Task: structure prediction
Amino acid sequence: SKAFADLNTNAWYHEGVDFALNQGLMNGVGNRRFAPNHRMTRAMVVMVLYRLAGAPEVTGTVEFTDVPEDQYYYEAVVWATKAGLAKGVTETRFAPGNAITREQLATFLYRYAQYAGMDVGGQADMDAFADKDKVSGYAAEAVAWAVAGGIINGMENNTLAPRANATRGQVA
Result:
């Protein structure tokens, strides 16, 4: 992280960011910046997972009208959708530039763990979180798994903030 002017080596995200950078899972955003507090997009997350999987060879295409073949994330989106890790926001839109929410992130990670053959059986008791009812139905199992595994932590006031945007520091 020392290569980036906007990273604090004493911050809570430091260890995760160093890991993501050293493993080649994430890059900076330009001008010696990592932008740890900026939103992470859906395209960025599928790129991280694609790199984590070893950037496997991709065949086929996607039907999303908002994922042009000339974009850096195209192969990652094709791979993630074919592997069942990510779905579009509609049948024809992936929304690659949209911020990913914390519950969407948990869902992508949960599906990746299944894809990688990891144990996804752990489920946290969500009663401790004041906003547990705000977790969308599709994401409930994934969020409980992510909390149980320490992948997603609570926020202020015993909340999960499941529909809040996930930051680059949180993803790292």
